[in-house]
Amino acid sequence: MTQIRIEAVTPVFIGKGEEITPFDYVLTEDRFAVFDVQKYFKKKAGKVEEFYRKVNSNPGEFSLSDFLSSDRADRDCWKYSVKSSVLIKKILEDSIKTKKPEMSVKSHIKDDLTGKPYIPGSSLKGAIRTAFLYNILRNNKNHVKKHMEKLIREAKNASFQEKKFIEKKLKNPSFLSEPFRGICDIANDAQKDLFKLLNIADSSPEEDCLELNLIDTYSFDKYKNYRTVYETIKKGTTFHTSININEYLLHDKFRHTISWDKSSSMNIKKLFQVINFFTLD
């Protein structure tokens, strides 16, 4: 097992589809804080009835910040807080008033027990897969070219339905998974994938690392441009994790389970070389 240290060179966002709504957060002059409403109600039980009355009367415009007023600054009821810029604070406040989607903040994935942000090992493995594939395709450009030319030839005399099927192939090219599945005929079969050999642990940051970032999305189609606020891991944040090649699966007894005739060539040193080459290229 190899211990590695990772540094974020840009802000990082990894989500799992969760959002922090105006029912969950409060805004102070310089902080965005996720509020523990249940803890607050234990301290001020008389506020419970008023809370539900305001929520039910106009849920679309409800803001926990407005409801709590001066109590929003009660840090004892904050689950955690993130420094907020004046611009992001204004965008969130204005969005709540106008009921825009921007009033919710995209939540970075967090540990269910500690509530702290982390980077899943599966996300790191996915990044390494990208570097691995890039290295293979860079050294064998014909791999992509021959498949693309084949699809173009098929499309020339194809019917409308056949062209739609070819279009799907272009959007989800299964031939890109060939370097990972070796001699296996089934595309995207996790049980036969070369990276089944690779184990990467989840990694937690060394320090408080969250910040809010504003992402502007522009549309050239009929959809309107929009802005989204994300919880992100700060640039420069460091993590520690471990990476390991499961050599047990390389034993002749199990070699068939990954259907990879050159699996023994996979090792940590070569992986790091591939990652560095991809990063610097």
Write a short abstract of this structure.
It contains 9 helices and 11 strands. The protein has helices at 37-43, 48-57, 64-68, 86-98, 121-139, 142-156, 160-171, 178-181, 268-280, and strands at 2-7, 15-20, 25-27, 31-35, 78-83, 105-108, 198-200, 204-205, 210-217, 226-233, 238-245. The strands form 3 sheets. Strands 1, 7, 8 and 11 form a 4-stranded antiparallel β-sheet that branches.
Which properties best describe this structure?
single chain; 281 residues; alpha+beta; four-stranded antiparallel sheet; four-stranded mixed sheet; 9 helices; 11 strands; globular
Q: Helical proportion?
A: 25-40%
Mean pLDDT over all positions: 80
Tally the beta strands. Answer: 11
Oligomer: single chain
Low-confidence stretches: 183-187, 253-261
Q: In terms of structural class, how would the helical and strand content be classed? A: alpha+beta
What is the alpha-carbon Rg in Å? 25 Å
What is the N-to-C order of secondary-structure elements (H for helix, E for strand)? EEEEHHHEHEHHHHEEEEEH
- Based on CA inertia axes, which overall geometry fits? globular
How would a crystallographer describe the biggest sheet? 4 strands, antiparallel
Quickly count the helices.
9
